[in-house]
Specification:
InterPro entries: Transposase_DDE. With 66 residues, this protein is mainly α. The chain contains three helices and no strands. It is elongated.
């Protein structure tokens, strides 16, 4: 029964995301640029953990990636 649960989860994921999946094969477009940018932001946040001045943090973030 557990195997069916896993299969249903995969089937639901494909059903919800089939347009994005097909878009890759039709246009060869992915969201790798967005994922890369998100990883850079996460690394930047880890580096400046405990920041008190949020405005300055956002300023540095925009200056770094613009």
């Amino acid at each position: 029964m557990e195997g069916f649960k896993a299969f249903n989860t995969i089937a639901n994921t494909i059903t919800l995301n089939y347009r994005s999946i097909l878009n890759y094969f039709i246009n060869r477009s992915t969201n790798t640029l967005v994922e890369s940018f998100n990883a850079k932001i996460k690394a930047f946040r880890r580096q400046f953990r405990g920041v008190k001045n949020v405005k300055f943090f956002l300023f540095r973030l925009t200056r770094m990636f613009v």
